[in-house]
Amino acid sequence: MIEFQKNILRVSKGRTRLPAMSWQLRMSGYASTLDTHVQLSPRIWILYTDKRWKKEIKRFARESEWLEHEGFGKVEVRQGGPRPSTKSTSVLVEGLVFDPQHGFSLGEGLHVYLHVENPQHDCSSVNGLILCATTTRLGQVHGQRLSRIGGSISVNSTNIAVTTGHGIFELIMNLFEDGLARDDNSFPSFRDDPGHDSDSNCFPYEDSSDDESGWDSDMEGQSSEIDELPWPCALGEPDTDSIKEWTAVELHGLTSFLGINHVDLIRLSHQFVNHVPFAEFPNHAINPGDTDFSLWSLRQQHHTTNEFSHAPGGSKVSVVELPNLSTDESLQVIIILGPEKTLNGTCLAGFSEFMVQGVIFTTRKIRTEAPLALGCSGAWVVTHDTHSLMGMVIAAHQNEPYIHMVTRERLFADIKGALPAGFDVTLSPRVEPTTSSDTGKRTEAPAQYERAAGIMKEITSTERQRLC
To answer: Where are the compositionally biased (Basic and acidic residues) regions (predicted)?
Structure first.
């Protein structure tokens, strides 16, 4: 598979509009209704995430003559595999206030607003809180994406919330690539069809080719999808109806997805709006890379601890940071989907890869009890025994019980590499919440919030200067 990956990189170099895809070694076999047994043999599967990519992937595979010349044998092209796991909303989330002071302007009438849920109970943790990213154009909402706050990290001894970058940027990029950012006031329909969820397509487009032929001839008559028998339910569905209050996120921070940060988007927004294809930006400052993170200072700074319990009212445990864990064996893990909501899984030995826009992400693959619902991106993964942070979920398989996480070591290294020189990044230490001597209730810590906002503003200013 290593040689296969090297060749994939070689033949995909310079190609534009490559979809999200992955490759796996699986056992395959076919049988008619009269057969009493099936003979299985190993085959490489090339998996694509959305059926709108079907023709492009098959064309890509047909053009890759090295597959047979170099002894890889038959290759099957099928729908499936990992994809960035945000959730589109079918209706507007209620209770959100779009205050221009908190919005993030890309120019040309484009704005992004972030809101994070306020837990209904007395909770000091940010782990697994739902994050809603809303994109507007000329005052009209174009779409919303749900993901999760992973937890709190310490940047120069100041607590900062961390989540994925694609949960915020991917919707914007899809709008640009799909040509929705135009001078009209239309309200695009939300694409959240349970039968075919087109979330997280990573810049899909409709291939106009008339070539419908399959690439693998002995797959004729066979389904090209691996989700023919869907699981009865998906775990971890974001429930926005139960959220009574949202807080606007202060949009001074650092976000990076595929090597693109928020300052890059500001600088290039006029090219997006003028329909310059994403891959054809002249002299742009983007350096493609497998980055996927976002840092923000939260207003509810008393919610800065990394604690969770397995069920409402259960005993709390703290997330810790221990030395690097071995990748040579499988480990029992916990996926944190809220301060009082977790799922169990098994982190498989070794590493996995998948490709988004020609960029390969190297991840750890986790098997869960059932497929995770869209919207799990950003969730933290910890070891089952020591509760040590292992990484952050960035992708999931549709109708297969697997998710992918970027490791803690890689996540922290990417964040530190994007910060100004001298910035330190660690897991936030446990901090006792401040209390009022009069009421005994938890109160905000204004100084902590101002310090966090100040650091984020400094980072934003540094990035602007870098691109000027």
So the answer is: 186-199
Give a yes or no: residue 226 inside a domain. Answer: no
Could you give the CA distance from residue 14 to residue 10 in angstroms, rounded to a whole number? 9
Extract the tokens encoding 206.
Answer: 């409709």
Q: How many domains does the chain have?
A: 3
For residue 26, pLDDT over 70 is answered with yes
User: Given this model, what pLDDT does residue 405 score?
Assistant: 96
Q: How far apart are CA 130 and CA 171, in angstroms?
A: 16
**Measuring CA to CA, how many Å separate 386 from each of 69, 152, 343, 345?**
48, 18, 16, 15
Residue 125 DSSP one-character state: B
- List pLDDT tens digits, range 319-365: 998 877 778 889 999 999 988 899 999 999 999 888 887 788 999 99
The more confident residue out of 330 and 468 is 330
* Predicted confidence (pLDDT) at residue 195 exceeds the cutoff of 90: no
Q: Domain for residue 340, yes or no?
A: yes
Q: How far apart are CA 76 and CA 22, in angstroms?
A: 12
Is residue 191 a contact partner of residue 458, using CB atoms and an 8 Å limit?
no
- What does the block give as tokens for 145? 């994406």
Buried b (16+ CB within 10 A) or exposed e, 448-463: bbebbbebbeebbebb
Q: Which of 80, 102, 125 is the last residue of a domain?
A: 80
Question: Cα angle vertex 464, ends 460, 286, to 5°?
Answer: 105
**Could you tell me if 71 and 98 lie in one domain?**
no
SS3 content of the chain, % helix, strand, coil (to 5): 20, 30, 45
Is residue 17 over pLDDT 60? no
Inside any domain, residue 435: no
Choosing from 20, 45, 80, the residue where a domain stops is: 80
**pLDDT (average), residues 377-388:** 95
Query: Rounded to whole angstroms, what are the CA distances from 458 to 53, 163, 423?
Result: 41, 19, 11
